[in-house]
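Deliverable D4.2, example record:
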Amino acid sequence: MFVTRRALVALFIIGFAFCLLVVLIVNPFDVPTNLGATNIFLSPSTADIISTDSETEAEDEVKKSKPEKKVIDLAISSPQPSTTLYPHGKKPPAQPKPAEPEVKHKIPDSFQHVKDTKDVLEFVHRQCKKYNRITAAPGEAKKPRMLLVPKDWREHMLVYASNPKTGSTSFKKWLHRIQGETIPFDEMHGVHGMKQYGQLSEVYDEVEQELGHEAQLSDAVKDLYKLVAIRNPLTRLMSGFRDKILRRTETGIKPPMFEFNPDLNANSTDAEKYAAFAEAVVTEKLSNLHFTEQWSKTKICDFPYDMIMQTETTNLQIKEVQEHTNTTQYEFPGSRSEQGQDSVATVHLAHEFYSKVSPEVMEKIYKYYRWDFILMGYTKLDNPNFPYLDFNQDIDKEFGYLLTEEDRNFGSDLALDDEESPTDDSP
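Output generated by the structure prediction step:
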């Protein structure tokens, strides 16, 4: 009996050790801390229940004690350069962004299209000679429609040929600043009367005293820096429309425009109004000096300019003028859009406005302003360099077909030599 008990104890110990060994082999890391020897002697069902509850509680304790591991997407886990922010095509859920308006016709940056002053002068002279537009005798000059000199012209030796809708208001405000006006540019009004500036007759008198005989225009302006601004005819016509029609009428409509679109009303779009306006101008049903050709008013072929500035690049060219005229200390005013008076610059509305103009009327516009395009080198709407000068374009191909037989054989009758000089130049 004694032997039997010792044998039972030994068997019990061996059995207990065997159970522990099995548990360690099957689950070596998650051994329940509260596993007692008594569990082994319980019925299978009871042991399962107690073991399950104990393991669940143990797992909960482990989860509480260990930080939860996050799932890391290596493609977006750290800031990276924009070019490699989402490699391999992996991206996080994107938030919807408002659609940006499609830019169908982007206007090139002006700094890429500034022309050298000498190149412009040579191009214009070459075109004037080629197309027989020079009407002044050699060594003589013909007077542009309006020539202005500052009151203290001897100090600055500057003469400006005013050309409507090419920034002439800004130039005249600048002349006022040169003459000593100190009020802000936006408070300057009524700057278009010629009596506000120096008298060209004073220049003549002084030159005649030096010469000892009557001075010609070419003599009077010989030592002055002669400046004019020009502009693409398409945007210049638009500027005239925005200024003279949209801003100065209640409806944005002048009566002659109804002839070309009787359905126009105050609620019509600006582009629709402009189409009727442009047709009225080029058919000469609506006339104004602000809408007429530039080349004849400025005598571009018959006056010895030192600078033919482009309105499109004035802000980049004005420094050259200031350096030649001792006016670097006088700020030049910006355009209407730069001053905040217009929300959108005229040039950025060009494609919208001309989208309502029929192809037939577009041809009439090009023909009406043919000499501005041909002599100055401006571009059509479909030219990628629009609205700037383009001396590399084929002028004959682009505009030659618009010339009449009279244009080819003569043309001097278009110089308007007998045009009276104005007393003012309303904007």
